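Homework-ish question, so no full write-ups if that breaks the rules, but can someone show me the predicted structure for this set?
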Amino acid sequence: MLAGLLSIFLMVLDYRFERVDILRHAISSVLTPIQWVSDLPATMLSWSGNTIKTREQLADENDALQVQIAVLERKLQRLVSLTAENNRLRELLNASAQIEDSVIVSELIGINPDPYIHQVVINKGAKDGVKVGQAVLDAHGLMGQIVEASEFTSRVLLLSDSSHAVPVQVNRNGVRAIAVGKGLVSELELANVPDTADIIEGDLLVSSGLGGRFPTGYPVATVKSVEHDPGRPFAKVTAAPLAKLNQSRLILVLFKDEARSFHRALADDVDGEPSEKGKP
Amino acid sequence: MIRFNPVLILFSLCAAFVLSIVYLPSQLQFWRPDWSALVILFWVYAAPHRIGVFFSWTVGLFQDVLEGSTLGMNAFAYAVMAYLLVSMYQRFKLFPLIQQSFMVFMLIGIDLMICHLVKSVTGVSASGFVYLYPAITSAAIWPFFYLMMSNLTRKLG
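A: Not a homework solution, just the prediction itself:
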């Protein structure tokens, strides 16, 4: 009876007022070894995969990666000058300058056991400066956001969760929309798009930065299908997320505030796309 | 007679926690047995005077944090489940294993229904009876789980 009352009290506190975060934080820190052990099979698998590889395979892989680095470095060279030029032009327009984002690289160590909730657990937490609300990327695009940060791990809500939405714009022409998760890994839906909106199949959707939670300009999804049904008030637009939501193991947590030192940003991988503070 | 063994309780709980969040292929995800519930049921069955509602409540709280669900959801469900078993463990002990696993199906089914109710109130809902699949697998595993655990307690205790 007492246990029942206590748990109903807890549930209401958690759901309505978010007052029990300290308790959750404490238990979560205690449970970190369990998270770590549950990831052991995957870690062992990738470790043995790396160890059993032959010398030739490793050399080949190394060559391929060298080529890839060269290609990316070339792009980065252009990017530095372009960013500088962009900032100069923005100065001319009296707009505020863009700042570089920094990231920390983290690894996926767990997946929410409930198949209806799209959440993953990563191995960086409050100790590394991770805070609730930060955007999370993988190598291909936006993945989601941090919803819970404990001492050593944190929990990421993915784009595809049915309770997640991200403000986006079409890269081609700037049409704004909101991409809502549907509970399917490979599909997002654009909510309330007017029938006349200029969105076509194959359009790239980038984050628009409206709402202030996600930074501007990161690729989110490509439009998969656009259906115009005269019987419905809005067009039905579905999009496929660019981030490999159910495959990526290396996950980047984005810091957009300048609180972190620039050295740290250099030491980690400096990410290209700058964030935007205020529009002209 | 199964003896009360705190070390083994802790060990079985840790194993259950790991098993309940370890990665499974997506087809099997819906069928993941509720390991923590099985462990609770076994220990309530083994030592109903020592292990009861509050133990289960605490385990549920830990499970909530592991799953990232609303704090208190699993705690409440496990507490109810443990209460039901405590109130009828004398009959439960006399049942043959098959009948016991049917009771386990009912108990874990109730636990899952409570969780489902809380989830649908707080926004994450799923349609159909898919959410009851873990009760079926848990019940199917119960006889083997019971034999394994009672052997372990006998060997170590």
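Now go work out the reasoning yourself. Hint: The interface with chain B takes residues 3-4, 6-11, 13-15, 20, 23-24, 27-28, 31, 34-35, 37-39, 41-42, 110-117, 119, 147-148, 155, 162-163, 246 of chain A (CB under 8 Å).
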